[in-house]
Predict the 3D structure of the following.
Amino acid sequence: MDGSYVEEALTDAERAFQDTRGHTAEDGLSVTDAALVQLRKACRLLEAARTLRQRNGYYTVVIEASFVAIERSIQFYLLHRGHVSAEDLRYEHTEIYRHGTTVNLFSDTFADRLTQLWKQNRAEVYYRDTVASAEQADAMLALAEAVHRYVLDYASLEYECVCSSST
């Protein structure tokens, strides 16, 4: 790839992240509060998953987006309540579920089930050990919407959500 159009594309991508002057921020995500950034990323992931699901396909991407939306929703709560700092959230994906139990957001049993769901199914779908189905995509999207709704209710901060539909 060295010296080819791929290297040129890599250079362009690197430059895009290094110099952001004059860039247009994504609508709804231009907030300074780290917790709100995570909440609104979850909103956008859910909206993207709903849009892809309506196109009757893209099951793998819907499943991926749903897992990440769950993660972002929980991260929002932890940041909002001051249980973690933004730097604390850069760890293994399933570790966020353990953090949820330490602040009584949900039980150890629920966290263990989320962890097993992620380890057993997300990895299989992601690495193509299995082919994602419509039923799995629908179930994961419903779970992600339920977790998002639960976190908003628990935090009493529904007004900060930018989801276009009620979750």
Remarks:
- The helical segments are 5-18, 34-54, 59-80, 95-102, 108-126, 134-155.
- The CA atoms of residues 73 and 151 lie 7 Å apart.
- The chain has a mean pLDDT of 88.
- The radius of gyration is 17 Å.
